[in-house]
Amino acid sequence: MVVKCESRVSGKVMVVKRIKKMPSVSGDASDEDEAGADQGFPVRYLREACLLRACNHPNVMKLEFVTYHEGQIELFSEFVGLNVEDYISSLSDEYFTRNKQKHEWVLQLGRYFMKQVLKGIDYCHSIGILLRDVKPRNFLISSDGTLKLTGFVLARFSLLPEEPLTQQVVTLSYRAPEIILGGTYPVYTAPVDIWSAGCTFAEMITGRTLFEGDSEIGQLLKIFKLLGTPSDCNKSFCFEVPSYIELLPQWQPQSLSERLEGLCDEGVDLLSRMLLYHPCSRITARDALKHPYFQGDHSLMKT
Amino acid sequence: TETTMRNSDLVIAHDQSNRNNTDGCGEYAIEIFEHLINTERRLSPSFNYMEQVQHDINPTMRGILIDWLVEVAEEYKLSSENLFLSTNYVDRFLSVMPVLRSKLQLVGVTCMLIASKYEEINAPQVEDFVYITDSTYSAQEVLQMEVVILHALKFNLTAVTPHNFLTRLCSLLNHDQQTKHLCEYLT
């Protein structure tokens, strides 16, 4: 449950995310095995809380403090508004149709937001945090138009890149191919966030999810259908891929500029660099910010 | 200055060659470590808490506790990073909160529980930590202690440990696994 509140001490308006823990089963020994015993502070919120606490950047949501009493957790953070996903779906279809003034505005907004998305990711990577859940829903828009990165439930501090991590990360539609193909404990790192950011970018421009698979294999098919089936998989990825990949249809890469109507050439170029199969050739957040797409003055005009 | 310059050049060259490795975060490596050094300053225990804060325990007891945590980590196959983190939490908690000797083991085991949640893919259960203390404490007590410790540490759990730097240095110097394990043992 999320509520808005105002501090009586500082007058600061904050958002409280209140998490009710599973009802404690202690004292009810018979049910203990079924319901699973009380494990204290849940792992996911523990990571979210402490990683957000470690961050200090204008494009990352600021977590003011955390309270934990009698099984109820409250995360107090700075006040922000809608998330980007809800914002996109609140825009009517004509914002995403070509040759309209409104579409032009969406394209500008996309660039304005994307720059902040990348700044937030760049900051997190620069302090060693792997986000593992970058998607429009996890970017909140504050009243002055600043994007705030949130959703650190799956994030982790990762300095040991050779260490295998869990596969169960990143919302499927935004999941990078090396996670899908990597087996139970794939080795992956910062580029997975860039893949997700690329999907987010496309979604902001077109108003639709770029790859919307219903299963892991379905997701892979959607990706290959647009970007082409890699001819030599072991070369395209940096690891041994499962053999079933040979059985998939051979698609030719489609034109990204057709898929993202109206987006300028620089924007298409940036997106294609964010969606490269090989994690190491994928552009980093730092380099993406230096890309020609972001050169010049792109402040947002009100319409 | 010239040697330092050359050293930093070497570091950069290493990071660039690492870029082609699977880890791919070479570009950020230097910044990450600058951040680590700052964090280490911020999230370190006080050096004299035994004299200043504690009345009932002494350095020997802390030593015994840490030795025991090493055994627990071995028993449950926890990572060495986890062990370093637990030690950091124990010391930081003891820097702000006086603890009775009868509760010292509870503090230790709870810190390890928190570190496991933070660090491990498959963390041991609360019951496992109760079991390893020979049921000296109940699960309820561990959970209550968890609340106290989390608040005392103000949820700043992203502490920096010698292990972080070690991994980096070993990678820089191209040490093999054996050398790395020796270094780990020494720290």
UniProtKB/TrEMBL annotation, chain A:
Highest taxon of the lineage: Eukaryota
GO terms classed as biological process: G1/S transition of mitotic cell cycle; regulation of G2/M transition of mitotic cell cycle; regulation of gene expression; signal transduction
Residue ranges annotated for the Protein kinase domain, each copy included: 1-294
Gene3D superfamilies membership: Phosphorylase Kinase, domain 1, Transferase(Phosphotransferase) domain 1
Its EC number(s): 2.7.11.22
GO molecular function, one term: cyclin-dependent protein serine/threonine kinase activity
SMART domains assigned: S_TKc (SM00220)
Keywords: ATP-binding, Kinase, Nucleotide-binding, Serine/threonine-protein kinase, Transferase
EC category name: transferase
UniProt GO cellular component terms: cyclin-dependent protein kinase holoenzyme complex; cytoplasm; nucleus
Protein name (record): cyclin-dependent kinase
Taxonomic path: Eukaryota, Cryptophyceae, Pyrenomonadales, Geminigeraceae, Guillardia
